[in-house]
Amino acid sequence: MLQSLFPVRLATLLLAPLALAGCGGAGTELPSASYANAPIAPSEEYTIGPLDEITIHVWRNPELSADKVRVRPDGRLTIPLVQDIPAVGKTSTQLQEYIAGELSKYIEQPIVSVIVNTPEGNFTQQVRIIGATPQPASLPFRANMTVLDAMIAVGGLNEFAAGNRAKLIRQDRETAKQLEYRLRLSDLVRKGDASANVMLMPGDTIIIPESRF
Q: DSSP class of residue 148?
């Protein structure tokens, strides 16, 4: 009797961890993206990243203005009278206030405006797509961006992709914990199932595994 029960108990012990693993965050799906019930809303305010191209205008002082300045890889930029301005991580408003403060040493009450012409996005405001896709990439996040937008940008799935086993990795800003959600990219890209489309957030990472042969 004991010998007949041993294989059953052994199988139960072996399968228990797998069952528990299936209950983790990776099995959770995000709600489908829908624009039907709510107006499209702006995203959180953009912060400047390395290689962003910006224009700095100083009112009534064109000689101090700078058109299409590229933020250096070290996160700084230079304009007339002010060198090595720390730009990365600042919003446009914060940057123009900083520049105005520096220029106030030379001119009275400078009025500065900052325009981001070509955003590249810092790491916390990018969406990364890696794995079985023709063009893995880091994309600048934009307001109301969805998984479908990201997949179009990287050329969809390659022939070996296991799209319905893809994961979305997201950092919970309140708890600082890493969360995982299951994506159905094959249903979305290959079958046109709109219910598989979900909203993205800045900093999301999409991981697409290959099929097991």
A: H
Least confident of 6-10, 101-105, 169-173: 6-10
Length of the chain: 213
Per the listing, tokens 């990219």 go with 185
Residue 123: phi, psi to the nearest 5? -60, -35
Q: How many angstroms separate the CA atoms of 101 and 119, rounded?
A: 24
The alpha carbons of the chain give a radius of gyration, in whole angstroms, of 24
Query: 3-state class of 94 per DSSP?
Result: helix
Q: HSE on the CB side for 45, CA within 13 Å?
A: 7
pLDDT at 9 over 50: no
H or E stretch including 97? helix 92-103
Backbone dihedral region for residue 149 (phi beyond 0: left; psi -120 to 50: alpha; all else: beta): alpha
